[in-house]
Write a sequence for this structure.
């Protein structure tokens, strides 16, 4: 992984159907994941212990959109188990850092569009796919 953006800000998380959690001072990184040819956003409380989970860890996918007030949603993998749809919000101390974040986020979105990175929760089951059935029989034209 290569860091494309690293900075500190006030980070908040909202799970579906919940209200925004408290603003927590956090390190936020956008990293290029060469295994996926895309970008991940990782946020970690500045006061987190080594054994604590990150505040967020998700891919920037085709469906990921950043609002003008720096809010977005994604399938979060930060607790190491099943992905959970969450919303995130970051507030930076100055507008220059904010613009840099928006620019790098947009680059991550371009990677997602180019490589077809999606938030699909499950892979296709090959047992349910139908290969070459129909259309090649006489009289099916």
């Amino acid at each position: 992984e290569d860091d494309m953006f690293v900075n500190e800000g006030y980070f908040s998380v909202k799970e579906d159907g919940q209200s925004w959690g408290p603003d927590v001072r956090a390190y936020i990184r956008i990293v290029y994941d060469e295994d996926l040819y895309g970008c991940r956003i990782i946020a970690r409380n500045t006061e987190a212990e080594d054994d604590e989970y990150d505040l967020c860890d998700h891919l920037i996918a085709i469906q990921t959109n950043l609002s003008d007030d720096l809010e977005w949603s994604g399938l979060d993998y930060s607790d190491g188990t099943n992905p959970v749809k969450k919303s995130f919000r970051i507030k930076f101390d100055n507008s220059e850092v904010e613009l840099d974040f928006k620019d790098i986020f947009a680059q991550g979105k371009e990677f997602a569009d180019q490589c077809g990175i999606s938030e699909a929760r499950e892979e296709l089951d090959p047992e349910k796919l139908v290969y070459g059935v129909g259309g090649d029989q006489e009289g099916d034209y």
Confidence is low (pLDDT under 50) at residues 122-141. The chain has one helix and six strands. The longest helix spans residues 95-115.
